[in-house]
TrEMBL record:
Protein origin, superkingdom: Bacteria
Protein name per the record: DUF4276 family protein
A Pfam family recorded for this sequence: DUF4276
Cross-referenced InterPro entries: DUF4276 (IPR025455)
Length: 219
């Protein structure tokens, strides 16, 4: 079995990689090892994990992981939405489709790390977009808690491509969910909904995500 480090920004992504993506890719002789981003280190040596605060922190973590030659790849699962301002290429980002913009930033990320075992991936526009691959499962999870809100959310995103739901402050995927379902808790509900949807459906509805999985399959 070949090891792949997956640098993730939060507990939700960590659970998704461990419980949904890793079992599938184990069939391809891959062990996916999620690594939670370090946000800060105190003077006592304690480390806080989860969340992205600066690109400098991301870069240090990635370089540290690449020093471990036992991993055939180091990849990432970081939200495109609300990337830190010092992220490579962000100050040069202009027009284009969401797919073109995220590809531009991933390429800038790749060039900055500049290592043959590094495979960058940014989620368009954030993890919750994957949940819109099948909004019916959002309804099922919240049926006994907030059926009306979940139904309104499903109606709002009906017909939209999940990865094209934009990155506006009030319209990015998680903002839409919380507006209709304030009971939503990302680490608790996110992986549950994704698991109900299934990897095959997420891949079919989210081509940028699917492209990343294909690259991992072909290692």
């Amino acid at each position: 079995m070949r090891k792949v480090f997956v640098y993730v920004e939060g507990q939700t992504e960590e659970t998704f990689v461990r419980d949904i993506l890793a079992p599938y890719l184990s069939q391809k002789d891959l062990i996916l090892w999620p690594v939670l981003a370090k946000t800060k280190r105190t003077s006592s040596g304690a480390t806080f994990k989860g969340g992205i605060t600066s690109y400098g922190r991301i870069r240090r973590d990635i370089i540290e992981l690449l020093r471990d030659s036992s991993a055939i790849r180091v990849t990432t699962m970081i939200d495109y939405y609300a990337l830190p301002d010092d992220f490579p290429g962000k100050n040069r980002l202009s027009g284009g489709t969401p797919a073109q913009r995220v590809a531009f930033l991933e390429d800038a990320f790749r060039q900055d790390i500049d290592h043959p075992r590094f495979l960058p991936f940014l989620v368009l526009h954030e993890f919750e977009a994957l949940l819109f691959a099948d909004p019916r499962q959002v309804i099922e999870v919240f049926r006994d808690v907030n059926l009306n809100g979940a139904s309104q959310l499903a109606q709002e995103v009906q017909g939209l491509q999940p990865e094209e739901i934009n990155d506006g402050p009030q319209t990015h995927p998680s903002a839409r969910i919380l507006r209709h379902i304030p009971e939503y808790r990302k680490p608790l509900h996110g992986p549950v909904i994704a698991g109900r949807i299934g990897l095959a459906t997420i891949r079919a509805r989210c081509p940028h995500f699917d492209g990343w999985v294909r690259q991992l399959e072909n290692l």
